[in-house]
Amino acid sequence: MGTRASQLRCPPLRPVRQYFDGLVPALAMTPSRLLVIGLDGFEISLAEAMMAAGELPHLQALAANGAVFDIDHGRARATGLAWEQVATGRAPDEGGRWSAVRFDPQTYTVCQEPTRSAPIFAALDARMVVFDPPYFDLSRTSARGVTNWGAHDPGVAAHGKPLGLDRELLHRFGPYAAKPWIYGFTWPSQDRTLEAGRALAEAVRQRSRAARWLLHERLPDWDLALVTISESHSAIEQFWHGVDPDHPLHGLPSGAPAGRAMREIYREIDRLCGDLQRMAPDAGMMVFAMHGMGANQADVAAMALLPELMYRLAFGQPHAATPVWPNHLDNGIPLLEPDQSWHQAMNTLVPAQPVSGSFSRLARLRRRIQGRLGRSRSDAHRPDALEWMPAARYQPFWEHMPAFAFPAFYDGQIRLNLAGRERSGRVPIAQFEAVRDGVVDALHRTRCAITGLPVVEEIWFPRSDPLLRSDFEPDLFIQWNETPLGFDHPTAGRIGPYPFRRTGGHTGERGFAYIDWPGIAPRRGRRSAFDIVPTIFHLLGQAYPPGHSGQAITQSRP
Questions:
Q1: Cα separations (Å) of 142 from 194, 392, 486?
Q2: What's the CA gap between 507 and 120, in Å, rounded?
Q3: Rounded-to-integer distance, Cα 107 and Cα 99, Å
Q4: pLDDT for the residue numbered 518
Q5: How much helix, strand and coil, in percent to the nearest 5, is found in the chain?
Q6: Are 19 and 57 in contact (CB under 8 A)?
């Protein structure tokens, strides 16, 4: 159901060295500084197809003249913490986190936490300027710049350094142009799709103007500049069905405008890259994405179906109401009305439950803090607020269940209610593996209610000691097979089907890195996503701090 990102095929890139040489003077010696552009939630196969058609000349030129690497993010792709991993230089199994969602085993509550870690760039002996990198705590480095301006899942509070720089940027360029669409839900509505597409394309243009002002006028004395582009992330999660002809929703009225919007946003991102390179012709350049994107496989399964399955297995009865959908595709996939949101639809099926006082107080406290950070109620469905997610509404039952589903965004996650770890643990440690294996068997016996296929592609377990497991770690992870929208289980019965939430997700098979620097040979290769940060240190001639992840890309030019 939907195409994997790697299936968006394109012909080989044609040579463009002559074009590139006319754009920027060739670098005759080692550049004096490094410009790094991070593309958040970017699918390189779509970009490659557009490059082959001549639609992205700046990225095409960079690929033709620099080193090109396919980037493998591995299982860390599903953590949702790619930018924390960039900021800290740590993989999740080497000091990082496996999830941004923290579970408190004493209160059985969950919350999504911002980063607690200092950026690895605090160890950099160089002048650094950043613009809008998520999970980058400016206050703990000597870097200057602005964070949480228009980032998708910023992971930090809005901040400017020097003090007041964020307000200065706001005064010059206005509020972020696409704020209502950072976490947009648009597929049921052609009109909303058109509106979101226009706003996100304008947001890229606004980001380009702000970045050039910041790096060329306001803070021009930098050795390393890191600019993150988030519009690709916001766009692909709501517009993927427009560029994937095999997606079940491709033929809806929103499909064609979604596809046009995606391609226009990519063209604007390409122009931004060219604008920044012209602004700093003395700088070497790296453009990268930690992983690729594709069809969303996790939203419905992880957020709604899995929690209900675990409830039924524990109590032998349903909690969610039986859905009735007035409109659906011929294959049974439910559709929503143009003015209806996924959250509204799910609220009627899985109503909010009374929760513990501590959970309620925490929720109210988070809302007050978010208000002080300038976040509005219209952002109620952004990632750091979990109350909207059906999975979180099963929280009052967790302490009475042998195993339960965590709220999750990119995969399925299950935690056992383990004695000696959880306050009301029901599973003795001697039975941990037997209970866990029983859950695995139940999952393998579950089929998709739409396609009849198994819902599970892979299940894997953390390597840590169960009794010492991090509060950010479940006891098993589930990678879904295609896109389950409903479950059929032999004893638990049918759950769903439910409509799509986001059409795009973090399922691409590869990220990429284009590097134009005299010390890196023009070639094609494959590297770990965790090699990006040590390579930045290497290009600047800096020692990479020990105890961090990855290895620098050091191949020399012939």
A1: 41, 38, 50
A2: 27
A3: 19
A4: 84
A5: 40, 15, 45
A6: yes
